[in-house]
Design brief:
- Its cofactor is FAD.
- Keywords: FAD, Flavoprotein, Oxidoreductase.
- One of its GO terms (molecular function) is methylenetetrahydrofolate reductase [NAD(P)H] activity.
- It comes from Mycolicibacterium goodii (Mycobacterium goodii).
- Helix content is 38%, strand content 14%.
- It is α/β, with parallel strands linked by helices and 327 residues long.
- It has a single domain (45-139, 149-323), classed as TIM Barrel.
- An 8-stranded parallel barrel has the order 1-2-3-4-5-6-7-8, surrounded by 8 helices.
- Helix 2 (86-96) links the parallel strand 2 (72-75) and strand 3 (103-109).
- The longest helix has 23 residues, at 300-322.
Length: 327
């Protein structure tokens, strides 16, 4: 990695890939060609897309559940859950969502692909009409996950952003406001903008005030691209634990206790997610929300139904507010 630190720095400053401190004591400035991002509109609701791996029928069924509840779906690429190649997944989703206005956002990570294959996937996605791609360095593979397979990391996220921008694609990028060095995280997002990032998706944080401070600081540093803030969607202890399983990510303990202790944790989880979305969307600089997480341990279908309900309520609340009918 050249343009560190990544988002996986642990709260104590340790590296998520090896023992010892993160080797970057400050944000590395982008020194490649400066890009001028084309203005893009942010989706009001961007929903994490989770389905059974290598199951085209389940991709279609999940897409059908989410259609109409969101403006875009974010297809992740996890170290322990391989799935169809990005361009193929994009093609399946485009066909499945052809009668809706939902846009697929495909994630490309540098963990398993060298530069040549990343360029191939970018051109493939662009050729089928997918113009937004989530560019990430990628989580390191766990020691117990495919130990016989090497990890590539030819590039890091900012250099992948530059490749996507050079092809006139909209490069979406992540940022973790609570990962060390916390004061420098807004500046790191600005450096990604310089590389060509067109839109930012923040990882979830315990309190909306953290996002407000981050957004204000980033704007003062020169950030101009839209920001999407994450909403944690969980309804049981397993789906809550998943959202806290990566460095820098944590949930509000008060909200977590309320949801998990409720007589109806599903309804309570939905209400908590809608409340968080409402608070985040009231922040200056936040233009959309990402419904983040699996939502349920009862399977991808149930999780999709829960996120679809959250998305519908957020959209209905926005419509009511525009009409002057909502508080």
């Amino acid at each position: 990695m050249t343009y560190g630190p990544c988002g996986g720095v642990r709260p104590d400053g340790q590296c998520e890939m090896r023992s010892g401190d993160c080797v970057f004591d400050d944000v590395v400035s982008w020194d490649g060609p400066l890009a001028t991002p084309t203005p893009v509109g942010a989706p009001l609701v961007l929903t994490d897309f989770s389905c059974a791996p290598f199951d085209e029928a389940d991709v279609v069924r999940t897409a059908d559940i989410l259609a109409g509840s969101c403006d875009a779906v974010l297809v992740g690429e996890h170290q322990n859950k391989p799935d169809f190649p990005p361009t193929l997944m994009g093609r399946i989703l485009l066909d499945a969502l052809s009668e809706s206005d939902v846009a697929p956002w495909i994630t490309l990570s540098c963990r398993d692909r060298n530069r040549v294959v990343l360029e191939q996937e970018l051109r493939g996605l662009r050729s089928i009409g997918l113009n937004t791609v989530m560019c990430v360095t990628g989580d390191g593979r766990g020691y117990d996950v495919r130990p016989d397979v090497t990890q590539t990391f030819d590039l890091d996220g900012p250099r992948l952003v530059a490749l996507a921008a050079a092809l006139d694609m909209v490069a979406a990028v992540p940022e973790t406001p609570t990962a060390p060095p916390v004061p420098a995280r807004p500046r790191r997002l600005v450096e990604k903008q310089k590389a060509g990032a067109g839109i930012a998706v923040l990882n979830h944080v315990p309190h909306p005030q953290t996002v407000a401070r981050f957004a204000e600081s980033a704007r003062s540093e020169g950030l101009t691209i839209p920001v999407i803030a994450a909403v944690a969607v969980f309804t049981d202890s397993v789906s809550a634990a998943v959202l806290q399983g990566l460095p820098g990510l944590e949930l509000d303990p008060v909200v977590t206790e309320r949801v998990l202790g409720a007589a109806d944790p599903v309804e309570s989880g939905i209400e908590a997610a809608v409340d968080e979305a409402h608070a985040l969307l009231s922040i200056d600089g936040v233009e959309g929300v990402n419904l983040s997480g699996s939502a349920s341990s009862s399977g991808t279908r149930v999780g999709a139904e829960i996120k679809a309900e959250v998305g519908r309520r957020i959209k209905n609340l926005r419509i009511a507010k525009a009409r002057g009918e909502a508080p």
